[in-house]
């Protein structure tokens, strides 16, 4: 697939729409006080009378399908960003006509995700327990002082996308996280702790 800046922006918009749809279906599950794996039958084997079984089944199915779509879109967006940046670098050459790509930044992890709530903005964005955060918006290891830095970024970015780069199983993964009010606590639905307290 050939990527342009407009194509990447279109993919990001599509991703935002998918995230909104996932949120709406999660709200249906929350209304019925169930998650993705709670039983839909009672101890006697009959459909539960305290929930809308059809509505819950439909919402669960849609969430699974949309999460697959979301994962595919994130991969396309990441590939698109790499392609667009590569095209920009190709246009920049040194006086001898040799392309000189800028050095790739090495984001040293400074915080770790130790819990992610299902259906939360963090979960929808693709954050996983154990992810080590190397970049959270404008915060990197060199300017990170304490968790207040993260909180300030979150509070100033409600309903706006934050670029988050994490280390996961020795791979760098770029995510788009949108802090927003949801049915749970906080704006993210995950717990982030400084790495210094654990690994240093």
UniProtKB/TrEMBL annotation:
Keyword Chaperone among UniProt keywords: yes
Biological process terms in GO annotation: proteasome regulatory particle assembly
Keywords, comma-separated and alphabetical: Chaperone
UniProt xrefs under InterPro entries: Nas2_N (IPR040815), PDZ (IPR001478), PDZ_sf (IPR036034), PSMD9 (IPR035269)
Pfam families tied to this protein: Nas2_N
Gene Ontology CC entries for this record: cytoplasm; nucleus
Chain ranges of the PDZ domain: 94-170
Keyword Chaperone: yes
Family recorded in the similarity comment: Belongs to the proteasome subunit p27 family.
UniProt protein name: 26S proteasome non-ATPase regulatory subunit 9
Organism expressing this protein natively: Penaeus vannamei (Whiteleg shrimp)
